[in-house]
Amino acid sequence: MSKPNMQFSKIRLSRRSFLKASAASAGWLMLPGMGMYPSWAQDSRVLRVRDYGDPQSLDPGIASNLYEENVNAAVHNKLIAYKPGSKWAWQLEAAQSIEQVDPTHIKFVLKPGITFTNGFGEMTAEDVKFSYERIIDPELKSPIKGDWATLESVDVTDKYSGVIVLNKPFQALWMTTLPYMGGNIVSKKATLAAGGKFSAMPPCFSGPYVIKELEPKQRTVLARNPEWKGDPPGFDEIHIFPIDDEKTAEMGFEAGDLDYTRISMSSYKNMKKNPPENSVVEKYPSLYYVWLGMNMEHPKLSDERVRQAVQYAVDIPSILEAAYDGVADPATGFVPPGLVGHRPDTLVPFKADFAKAKQLLAEAGYPDGIDLDLEVRNKAVYIAAGQVIQAVAAQAGIRMTLNLHDSGSFWSLGDESKGDRWKKLQLVLNRFSSAPDPHYAAQWFTKEQVGVWNWERFKNPEYNQLYEKAMAEGDKDKRDQMYRRMQELMEASGAYRFITHEAVPVIYTDRIVPALRPDGMPLLRYFTTA
User: Fold this and answer.
1) 465 phi and psi, to 5 degrees?
2) pTM as predicted
3) How far apart are CA 176 and CA 437, in angstroms?
4) Residue 13: φ, ψ to 5°
5) CA distances from 399 to 109, 261, 371, 381, 495 (A)
6) pLDDT recorded at residue 44
């Protein structure tokens, strides 16, 4: 198969030209704010960054997307937070000290003087208790409840001190819960006054930034928190633009309207070789994972042999070459290389086997092939991947119709709370973010997640048992084998064809010092000027 020409051509655009190009390449996206503000050269106090989605909820207890966490991490505080740099590590944030005294008890002491805005007073251990215990409260229906899977309670010792009590050890706590989404602390008083939860604008903030403006599908503006007593933030304002397509974001950077953005993998090689003036181009290993999923309960896919036929009809090398320009490597599961639980290989070879696929289809009663729908997010890289899957699978008699969706439509496809669309779901090209511990990714494929994030409707008792055991297992080698087996069970079901972990290429102006996690994701509160 010939590779489509997806090379990036270096361009120079006026601000007006960029706005026109943005509208043409991403019709849903309107960016009026980008032309209303002075460029960096005129005002170094404003940082403009791109994120791939528009926040739907900024209540940390019910938020579940990385782009929501990027905002929450700047306007709220955690006991500990990820430390910027090339190695996964954490640092103290709201905590003055924190210590695991035994496998199920963690003592913490808050820094005094951290205040919530809008008159909601000083942060106390009671706020920590409220923030963490509400996530496991069934009434909240928190999508990140698994982040606190073994939380028993938070016992308050005094105004600033408390003890996190677990009902059994939880190995992922230090790298996927406390420094990530589940670790954000909200004001108990403010949240209860808001009815126990909130969706868009939080009732108060405690971080170095506050949300100044929240304009859906246009921008989110963060401004310095005048009540913040910690180290001064690097900027007066941070403007975050929801741009789903990296190609559009690249044009924004070229036009001088963005100071930091992730770029497409198809552009990386050329931009690294010929970077725009006054810019830095870098590539980071990714925690994302991309896979082709199959709804096991759809009549056409209920036979395991049909699902396996699809697996054998997908050619991973072709996808990586055409959609990712050869920059990304194939995935063997949801755990990337370097982390506990990474599998060295897959059950189904990376290269397609059309004879095997046809044999399986014939055995399942489809000697003349089968027609299936493939749902794809309307983004260049996924469209390209979907087209390759479609073209290659046709050689095995699997005829696919590609259905494109904007982000809002796509993320409701398998969600039972959004109606009955999940019943029509057949094949879906999906991509999730992750954290530096396999527990975070593993939680989405449990039986409890069916109809929430488990769109394949995969229900395997052994998987669930291993999931429960692995979160408490202190022996690294045993834990490694458990997660490997869990991914093997997923693949053996026929419902998953793992594709890639991608890579994270980014570009930023040399006038800023970005604060990035080891996977290239931004920690906006720590960005500074050069």
Assistant:
1) -65, -45
2) 0.79
3) 6
4) -125, 145
5) 60, 37, 5, 21, 17
6) 56
